[in-house]
């Protein structure tokens, strides 16, 4: 998928000069050939949406196999699978090779990569021979961030691929595993970075009433699966709190089960559209950070937290009210949080890589507005969603690349079309609906 935008930079073999990860070709920049696909009235002067956005129909049928995008089959069928899993001890100090990227990797997130630099390929091959683990950190200002996530390689191309123009290519799939903190940079020669790091533990707190629970009420305690169950449990908690110094509502703010339940309530619209939202508080806290659009610095902050309770408390504010997604450049209205829907079993956001090695965190929507399409024919080449062809989508206001429109090429596929918008091209705003006089 080809577009000119701010690409991740790969570790270079040429000193401090970074190799820009550019795709193998770019779109025709003749803006007279873009077709307008905006479908919703806008009031740009008042920066508000017309209320008819609520009338956009939700796709009622999905026949697409959502496991296919998570398999990243576009990387090829010749990848070798690695068995087993590497678990690093909490608090251990190790030397870890690092890759610096523009996006945040969270535990549980899949990271597909196409790498071209010789030194980077050799580093990854060394990782495979050892514990299959390397570290991923973000660019910071002015230096790289000190908190990152280990990534474990689980599939890779055996040896590496030599391209026609003499450039070497290496493909892999990795999974985010554990958070770490950089203590000291060991080597940083020719952009080949390794560091001494500490693997950060994930702190799990017991239920807030564990030490104050009244044994006589144990027969009334139930697992919470519905609003009715939650109300029943609240009555029991009120009795538990009666023998403590604090009212029950204080304890509830630190209950991971309650926080998880509230967040999953706000995400029910995804589950009704075929999505799978984790129930485990730790898994859920990382899943929300990965799949819900929020500020880059906010995501980095979430990665620093060592407890799911803290992450869930911070994340729930992004879900209490619907959000509008606007162009990061011109703030033109693009989409809406409630218009997301999952086309990947891992959630509405998937991480994909194009032939040029550019990593795109892409959120899928069934409706967007304020974008224009290239008039060129849709292409199935390197499609992240098998059975769908893609066309480049540009912000109508500033002509900045925002993603792609995907159109089914098979008659039995539903939905017939959807949108994939890149995280880096969007930012969120509170929803403000224009009231007509």
From TrEMBL:
Ranges where the Lon N-terminal domain occurs: 93-323
CULT domain span: 322-430
GO biological process: protein ubiquitination
Record-linked Pfam families: LON_substr_bdg, Yippee-Mis18
Alphabetical UniProt keywords: Metal-binding, Nucleus, Ubl conjugation, Ubl conjugation pathway, Zinc
The organism's place on the tree of life at top rank: Eukaryota
Subcellular location: Nucleus
GO molecular function: metal ion binding
Membrane spanning stretches: none
InterPro entries: CULT (IPR034750), Lon_prtase_N (IPR003111), Lon_prtase_N_sf (IPR046336), PUA-like_sf (IPR015947), Yippee/Mis18/Cereblon (IPR004910)
Protein family: Belongs to the CRBN family.
Function: Substrate recognition component of a DCX (DDB1-CUL4-X-box) E3 protein ligase complex that mediates the ubiquitination and subsequent proteasomal degradation of target proteins. Has an essential role in mediating growth by negatively regulating insulin signaling. It also has a role in maintaining presynaptic function in the neuromuscular junction synapses of third-instar larvae.
Description of how the protein assembles with itself and partners: Likely a component of a DCX (DDB1-CUL4-X-box) protein ligase complex. May interact with pic/DDB1.
Protein name: Protein cereblon
